[in-house]
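Weekly sync, protein design subgroup
Attendees: M.S., D.O., the rotation student, P.L. (late)

Item 1: inverse folding check
M.S. brought a backbone from last month's batch and wanted to see whether the design step gives back something sensible before we order anything. D.O. pointed out we never logged the input encoding, so this time it goes straight into the notes. Structure tokens as presented (374 positions):
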């Protein structure tokens, strides 16, 4: 099935860093070889979208369409696509799974050699144009648009009964946090965990720790309003670093007889990464870096590691997208995974700048945007 040419539709374009997004009419070219064109039914606003817009601000990445946490329906497929057909419900993936490279063939990682990350956030050859200008595609997905074109190796086909306005969150935040606990840290039953940062990713990490059988889960955040929500996902104890005049790592060590077995940093702040590592017990403590930043170096004293702690990183929770995402959707449909509880706001794509403001000021967990309001 080949598609019927260019689609004109609405998208939120980031013309330059640090400025509001602008709803524009864009042209979305038909999918080329091994690509699919997806009608985006729902897309979440993730902190990484804000990071690109307000923090990393690489001038050469703009203009671009942000968004990478979404769900939709295949509209058309390009030549050579056999895995998908129009009408399939899918989740686009910002980490591809080509199934052929040495990383895809290894059970040890979800990195893929063909991923967009090799190209520094943007696919140079995007299918978007606006006002005669080529618009960069963010993370190989660009979901703040009514339609997008994605390589078939970066798309997961999901259960047709899944509600897209919910499971879109499985495309980033939920897998990222949950998998960091279950796949990367490999949290063990009866263990003690600490999760730093209680945004969507942190709450998903709390849920992962609980699913893995942790008996004590410390939720660490400087915003005490987040604690009630963390309880819903399984947190047992709450620590606000601002309540103490000593380092949080010391506070946790005193509460846990020497430190937690597992800690997860879900903020993207190098100071917090250090605190998370140093909150782990010596001998076997494992700390996972989940939050994204490239702006600063991370540091600690060598003795922290010499004493037997392990420092690891996790991207997309270690899930291989095509394999893991459909399974997570099934877990949700089987009531084994909380998803709806992350959604605090529903808005239209037109309200994207309001959604950005909510997240900037910590007033939401997840806002789901609808590009096609009735």
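Designed sequence read out in the meeting:
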């Amino acid at each position: 099935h080949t598609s019927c040419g260019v689609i004109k539709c609405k998208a939120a374009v980031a013309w330059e860093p640090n400025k509001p997004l602008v709803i524009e009419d864009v042209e979305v070219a038909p999918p080329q070889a091994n690509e699919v064109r997806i009608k985006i039914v729902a897309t979440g606003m993730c902190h990484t979208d804000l990071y690109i817009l307000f923090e990393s601000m690489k001038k050469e990445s703009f203009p671009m369409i942000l968004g990478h946490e979404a769900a939709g329906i295949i509209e058309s497929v390009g030549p050579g696509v056999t895995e998908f057909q129009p009408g399939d419900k899918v989740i686009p993936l910002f980490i591809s799974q080509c199934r052929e490279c040495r990383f895809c063939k290894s059970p040890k990682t979800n990195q893929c050699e063909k991923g967009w990350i090799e190209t520094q956030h943007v696919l140079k050859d995007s299918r978007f144009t606006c006002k005669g200008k080529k618009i960069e595609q963010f993370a190989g997905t660009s979901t703040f648009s009514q339609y997008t074109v994605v390589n078939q190796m970066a798309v997961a086909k999901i259960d047709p009964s899944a509600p897209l306005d919910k499971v879109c969150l499985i495309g980033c935040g939920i897998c990222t946090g949950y998998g960091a606990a279950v796949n990367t840290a490999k949290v063990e039953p009866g263990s003690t965990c600490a999760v730093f940062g209680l945004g969507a990713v942190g709450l998903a990490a709390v849920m992962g720790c609980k699913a893995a059988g942790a008996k004590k889960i410390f939720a660490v955040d400087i915003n005490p309003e987040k604690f009630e929500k963390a309880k819903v996902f399984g947190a047992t104890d709450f620590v606000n670093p601002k309540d103490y005049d000593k380092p949080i790592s010391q506070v946790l060590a005193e509460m846990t007889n020497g430190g937690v077995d597992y800690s997860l940093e879900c903020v993207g702040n190098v100071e917090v990464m250090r605190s998370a590592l140093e909150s782990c017990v010596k001998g076997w403590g494992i700390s996972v870096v989940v939050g994204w930043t490239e702006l600063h170096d991370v540091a600690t004293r060598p003795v922290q590691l010499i004493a037997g702690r392990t420092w690891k990183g996790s991207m997309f929770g270690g899930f291989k997208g095509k394999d893991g995402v459909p399974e997570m959707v099934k877990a949700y449909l089987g009531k084994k995974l909380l998803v709806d509880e992350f959604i605090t706001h529903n808005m239209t794509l037109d309200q994207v700048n309001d959604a950005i403001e909510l997240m900037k000021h910590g007033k939401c967990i997840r806002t789901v945007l609808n590009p096609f309001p009735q």
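Discussion: The domain at 177-315 is CATH 3.40.50.720 (Rossmann fold). The radius of gyration is 20 Å.
Action: P.L. to compare against the previous round before Friday.
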